[in-house]
Amino acid sequence: MKRLHVHVTVADLDQSVRFYSTLFAAQPTVLKDDYAKWMLEDPRVNFAISARGNAMPGIEHLGIQAETGEELADVWSRLKDAEGPVLEEGATTCCYARSEKAWITDPSGLPWETFLTTGESTTYGDSAMIRPGAGGAEGSACCVPSADKIAAAQKTAETSCCAPSSGCC
């Protein structure tokens, strides 16, 4: 069963951990100096907060977390039908986890990720997919690509000699 993912940038991590722990009646399942995550069953959500870099507080991105490869393939298929460029990032490390991941932006520019977590990581991330203005790889709230980067990746894929539409593969 898939799980909704919400990632919020916060100004004060300790204060926010106390608030959300009280709101959810649960302690975080992951707690780092700059990041916390609750894997809740009711409501079924992967709720993460971070206080990294100079990102403005608020919703950083939304997502759908798959629990199996089949669910991920189903969601990725729907992404491709959603009338927007899709950036298939593939295997990456972000938010102290290893994942298979793809990105799309909604019509208003809000980033959505679809992912399957494949393991834990001791580092925040290795992705170069950073949203401009988020402070770069070390300072970003998460490894969120910009809408321009998603569109550019899709355009590159469409014009590549190995793109399905090229007829060469």
Q: N-to-C SSE series? A: EHEEEEHEEEHH
By DSSP (H or I, 4+ residues per run), the number of helices equals 4
Total strand segments: 8
Shape, please? Answer: globular
Number of domains: 1
Distance between the termini: 34 Å
Average pLDDT rating:
78
Rounded to the nearest angstrom, the radius of gyration is 16 Å
Strand order of the largest sheet: 2-3-4-1-5-8-7-6
What is the beta-strand fraction? Answer: 25-35%
If you consult CATH, what is the topology? Answer: 2,3-Dihydroxybiphenyl 1,2-Dioxygenase, domain 1
Can you say what the CATH homologous superfamily is?
2,3-Dihydroxybiphenyl 1,2-Dioxygenase, domain 1
The CATH architecture is Roll
**Helix/strand-derived class?**
alpha+beta
Q: How would you sum up the major sheet?
A: 8 strands, mixed
Low-confidence stretches: 128-141, 159-169
- At the first level of CATH, what is the class? Alpha Beta
What proportion of the residues is helical, as a percent range?
Answer: 10-25%
Keywords:
169 residues; alpha+beta; 2,3-Dihydroxybiphenyl 1,2-Dioxygenase, domain 1; 8-stranded mixed β-sheet; 8 strands; globular
